[in-house]
Amino acid sequence: MCNSPAINGSMGLSPSDSNLSLPAPSPTTLALPPKAQNALSMYNPMSFIEKEDAPKPQKYSEVDIDGLIRALKNPPEQIVDLYIHYCPRIKSDTDNCSVSLTLADHNFVRRLLYRFEGPDRTQESDHKVCSKVINALVASPAVSSVTLEIDYVQSDVIVAELCTALHTNRTLKKLSVYSDNRFQQALNSECVKHIAEMFLVNTGVQELQLGLIDINLQVADNLALALRRNRSLQGLTLYARIDSDALAILTKPFSGQEPNQTLQKFEIKGFKCLGARGDGQIGNKGAEHIATILCRNSSLKELALKNCMIDSLGVQTLALALLTNKSLEVLDLSYNPLDVDGLKEIVKTITMDPATQIQPNTTFREIIIRHSFISRAGASILANMLKTNKTLERLDLQFSVRLWTPKDVLMVLHSLKNNQSLRFLDLRGCEGVDGPKIRDTILDLLVSNPWLEQVGVEGTPLARKGHDAVIKAQLRRNAEKYSEVFKGMGTVTPTAARVFLCGIPFAGKTTFRKTMVYSNIKRTSSSMRVKTSAAFENSKIFKGRKESQTIGIEVQVIVEDNVQISIWDLAGHEEFHAFHDLVVPNLSSQGSACSFVLLCDISVPQGKGGSKFELKDVNVIDHELRYWLRFIASNTRQSLHMLPNVTVIFTHSDKFPKIDLIAYCKQPVEKLRVQFLRVINITEFHVCDARSRKSIEPVQKAMQKRIVSILDRVPKVFDACSQLQIKLNEWKNQHPDKPLIKWSDFTLLCSKVPALKRLQGQDADIANERAKAVARAMHDAGELLYFDGLDFMVVDPNWFCHEIMGRILSLDSSLLVLKQPLIDQKGYTKREHLKKVLEASFCKNKNPLFKGRKVRGVIPEDLVQLMVKLNLCFEVNPGDKTSGIVIPAALSNLSEEAARGERRLSWPLGHNHGDELLHIGWRLKCEDSDLTFLTLGFFPRLQVFLQKRFSGVSDASYAIEKNFISFVFSGLEFLIEYNGPEDCQIDILVRSSKDTVETWATVEDTVLKITREFCASPTEGCQGVVLIEEIMRPQCVRELWVRKKRTKDQCIGVEVLKQKVLASARLDYEYIWKKSMEESQGLKADRAEELLGPENWEDVLNRYLDSLEKIDFEVNSKKSSYDMSNMNSPLSPLTPQPSRRIGRTVSLLPRPSEMTRQLLESRLTDRSMEVEVYQKRLFPDLSRNIDNVIDFPFLLQDAKVPHLVYLSTGGDSVNSERLVTKLTPGSYSRKFHLMCEHRDGIHMIEHQVGGIMRCDEKSVRSVRPHMLWGLKLISTLLRISELAAGGFSNMLTEAERMRLMGMVTDDDAPDSIEWPDVTGRLSFTPEEMMAAEDWLIHYMKSKNIAALFGLYKVVYLDDGMESKHTAWICDKHVKYGLHHGTVQMLPM
Ligand SMILES: Nc1nc2c(ncn2[C@@H]2O[C@H](COP(=O)(O)OP(=O)(O)OP(=O)(O)O)[C@@H](O)[C@H]2O)c(=O)[nH]1
Ligand SMILES: [Mg+2]
């Protein structure tokens, strides 16, 4: 039976003869359905391209027209835009014909909307409303921007009215007129005429945007007249069909006698219908006109020529003009086919000539080339320029460098090391932005190059894997630009470092610290300087406490050889861990010099008496140390060059005088060292008796040596910081009773610092900015705690960490200064309790150094503020100074039920309205849980952070329990459950009354994005942790399964699922869930499209289209001799041109965001339609043009023998037959198969007898090319569609299939080396080709091809004429061909 996949009707190739059920010769191309065509060409192809940073939250309200006009005349907030969508022809309510007013203040964007609707709506009534609005607008000085979206047919009346009104108006600054997207028709030329005439009179409008317009010579003339006369218009954007002749007229005003010198921004977005090449675009000739202007004009600063069909030649003329032009700053050449030659021309103008050391153009600041094609060669050109360039600020290559590899990206990144001008680098969509090396290089670069503020990595593999969050966090810091303040200031080697002592309770940390400090005092006796506010034996303050357990963190400072070392002794007891990560610097590579000491008690008491000890088991040691190593790794941002240093110390060595402890400890430490190699640098380990000065001496020496070397390596600190440190220490000595310093005192200290005094500009604001920058730098270095917005800072970390936070977090009632517990079970406490804690922190002990010390200048309110800033607590009623506070970190332990994973869940809004609601669940989990985890403090801080966001929302009903949050927000109910640091999963269950698009968007904005960002933020988050996003099985959410039941296999990673869909090449892919614990029968599946949600689905579609486009390029490009010679070079021109993107035009029509939903939906429909069209077309295309894809040896091309080979394992039934993807010589055999080569659809022949192939060394070598060619073909078929691949898809496992399709994930990497990449171009040496050819011909010689393979040799008869095309096809295709007279049999 012929298994031609093309038979299936859904391929769109309907069989013309049902008896034969064979496909009719198919048309090679299919037209897009008209709707798709319209939509495709108008809408913005990818929403996220234009999406900039988080917009303000939006609110809508619908109003009646009088309400709107009132607001227009008397706006409650600033009016951003007035938007009139006038299209009386459209009657349906869903079409959003409306008038809306966008208002904004600092916090919100508000939209007042009036809809044209109702039964008695007529053209006149619509018109009347518009006239009314226009009249009101003209009278309202508050409106500075108007957008008109209109029907292209009837709207010139409205435009005329508006223009007449604007004759006298002087307040409107920006006018945009667009024709309604849905008609995809240019504005009536009358409209343009009115507008042009208006500009002869109006002198207020500075910016004009018109779209879509047809600029014929007449229209060009009208606009040119306006440009000649008008002297106020500064920005002109034309979304237009315009050719070079019209452009010549339009640009005339810029030359001649009195040239226009007011226009600063000129933008053309070329428009062309799909398929119409070059039509309506200015092309290279147009570029020449523009170049002429650039040579003379001196006002133009921004020039955008998007989608104008300008190629390298046109760019060359522009670049030439840039050599003389001295005003242009921005050049945008997006959507043009300019390639690397074009790029080279532009880059040349700003590349320093090594001979003369001169950079030709120094005014030019921004290069924007999006959605073009810049091959790998572009990387070195750009890197070369960036190394020396001193002016370029922005380089935007979104979706233009998709095929760069990590190597290319690294080249560009390395070139930026010393660049101080570039601020924006956009590599969105670049496939080479992938892997930890790139991530770490970017992170390190952002530290050493603080001038970089934005690095676009969206749509790259790095972002898909969730690694972009921490990059963005670092970018946010860079954007604060505090280093700018220090520009030009001198730097010195830092002289202060921090040492963190970690380890489980009773490990001996405190003992070690004390012994160390004591010996420090002894040794430096005369010049003794122990700067400690922690009382020596302060453990006595907490009377009755078991032994000497540390509470909170104790901080002590010693000075040794002029190096100041502060020792941070972290409490081992778990109740304090939540606080620890706030003080641990996650900026190890930022140059805060620090080092970790990890202590471990080597002994285990034996028996009851406790006098006998045995050695701790190595597994226990491993377990103990691992926790703290993960703690350190989780709190440290990834880096390539500066990993945190850890020294391991085993204490209690005195108990085993006769054992070689070094030998015993070596193995567990070494094991951990290797495991953590990527994230932590375990430098050494020691064994000692922590109580003995003599015993710790070598340890201490080694530590000090290490610290000195760290200080040498970390980036230098600014003079100002180090000088201020001295001043601050003096201040602290004078005020030993003040743990806080007021901001005013701090600025006073700053004003005495010589390095700051020397700087230029002494006005108060600048001085204040500088003080802030210094404070921030010192905060990062751990010298003090500083937060923007507080009027004080903590200068005594011990006081805050130990005496205050330690006490607050301690659950030990003997510590409490109150009768009742300080914090109740719900984490709630009253403000006055804090006062008691504060009072108790007055030092009452007998320490001679600090006798009579009392803490002054602190009020409880300061404490609350500080804790709120640290996300340690939230106020029950924010802003109310008497309100109680909640400290989630102090929530009492899990209930038994919850601890078992059986916390019962219920929706906050109760049992109402059941099934019609959407139920969606997500899981965020820690990517590498062996090395990192969400530390104990993370979830409590997240609880605070989310609460702060919803504190203003009235119906949020935010409630927390230990490891749990529930709240309601804008129609969505959220249940968030955290399952503790072991597995590190945050489950987010949502029930929503909103539709899918809105639900997804809301969850993303309110929880997912926030959590990711929070996790990546320094100090508050766990920067070392990468959160990956998974989708939860909807049933878990619908039925509110308890945590225990929501096992690992009830969730699927977003990226994993996307890959599965892509690998299946089916848009209706269904994911089958593994059975849950209690389920017995039935497989439950959900459609991937529904599981992934709209935005993810759009990504899937786009990526699928990308791969189809790549195939299209390969299949349909004609090989030239040039191509042939470059075939194997990595810069092969066979890499696809992103024609799809170029073929489309961008509509940047600013639509009110209520439309975004429809836009997204229509984009999704369009994309799927596009996919379908491609799928239908590519299969026959590939079948016809196999030779474009694979370079068969000549004789095989000539069809001497059938040559589409694949190998199988053989097998009894069809189902057990597997495709052979690897071949190693051996004494076994494989089955040899051939495919039907019919030009309408190649396919495998089911039940083919096939040949036997013995796998001896020689055969394997000769058959290898055939196997790979076959695999390449199958891989291409698989990528086209499931249907095209026919029976092949059943012969592969999912993993094999994914690899064959070129989707290799990092985890498979080692194995993948064996896998040749069959998605790329295959190449063999001439000898190999010859051998392969000989082998096949020889092999087939003795075979009965018809009997074994079911193939017959035919020649195609085109128009009845005998052509030269011969092929080997199956019997069904033969019969069909003979019947239709399209083939003729040939003797075999
Ligand atoms: N024999 C012996 N005893 C030690 C050694 N190190 C610590 N100890 C004793 O172990 C007990 C606990 O030591 P600490 O230093 O308080 O322990 P810690 O690590 O600070 O504990 P937390 O603060 O609760 O995390 C003390 O009684 C110390 O005297 C050692 O090397 N040998
Ligand atoms: Mg301690």
Automatic annotation (TrEMBL):
Residues 1-27 are annotated as: Disordered. SUPFAM superfamilies: P-loop containing nucleoside triphosphate hydrolases (SSF52540), RNI-like (SSF52047). InterPro entries: Leu-rich_rpt, LRR_dom_sf, P-loop_NTPase. It comes from the Eukaryota. Signal peptide: none annotated. Residues 1-19 have a biased composition (Polar residues). PANTHER family: PROTEIN TORNADO 1. This is C-terminal of Roc (COR) domain-containing protein. It comes from Ceratodon purpureus (Fire moss). The lineage of its organism: Eukaryota, Viridiplantae, Streptophyta, Embryophyta, Bryophyta.
